[in-house]
# Entry
Amino acid sequence: FSCFPMERPVRVLTSDSEFHSFSRQLLRWEEAGMAVSTAIPAAPYSDFVDRFADAARGAWDLIYVSQCFFDTGFRPDGLATLVAEVAHPEALIVIDGYHGFMAVDTDWSELAERVFYLAGGYKYAMAGEGVCFLHCPPDYGARPANTGWFAGYSELSERGPLVSYPGDARRFAGATFDPSGLYRLVKVQSWLHALNISVASIQAYARSLQQYFLSKLDDLDGPLGSAQLIPPPGYPRGNFLSFADPRAVEWQKKLAAADVVTDCRGDRLRFGFGIYQTHAEVDELILRIRNHL
# Structure
């Protein structure tokens, strides 16, 4: 964001599903008069990419969309097509991969020269706090206004009339950081590699748990089922299931009392699935849902 001149508000295109992360920062920028934004509704999910691509032909400074939406897990297909429709050649395009990195088999090589991709290792990569990264395409945002001394680390012994920047992604570097999370990330990646566990296999296993959970949930014929799944069954999604219901907060509290940890965002109740869970544990989850909802 610091790459833009501040003589006018930055024009931002995003979706209405950038829930509680980018949306919070964007709202604050708008409060401060630093940005104006347009949010494209995620639903209907069947034509989201087409609608977003149509809007992307406008004169935007920043275009921000998630690989997997935070509030629903919806994973829009065709982001490469969307990027190709961006009309303004200097617009910064950001794909937020927080719910995609190490959860969804990903290859962004065809977009590497045009798109910023950001993600973190806190959840799916099992790296813990403090691990994040930003892929920076060349020739975009060459001189960010917010900068730290690590961005000029290679020129510490030289001083010129202007603030210098490296030509690679280090132009966005900040200041001194704690590298311990990076060591943890490397260790986890080595462990997964030794076990021959790929992101594709993690994704497939999480999907099998999701499908098993949904089938058992519908068999209960209780208040929670696939009819409330957002987006509906059949759409590509990340490694969690999101259910929309006005009773979401109430259900979360009841499940917490039964030692079931879920995530509640407004009227959305989310269940996450990963390689550390088993089908037997899904059976136990179903039992507790039956007894407490």
About this structure: Strands lie at 10-15, 35-40, 62-66, 92-96, 115-120, 132-135, 240-244, 263-265, 268-272. The radius of gyration is 21 Å.
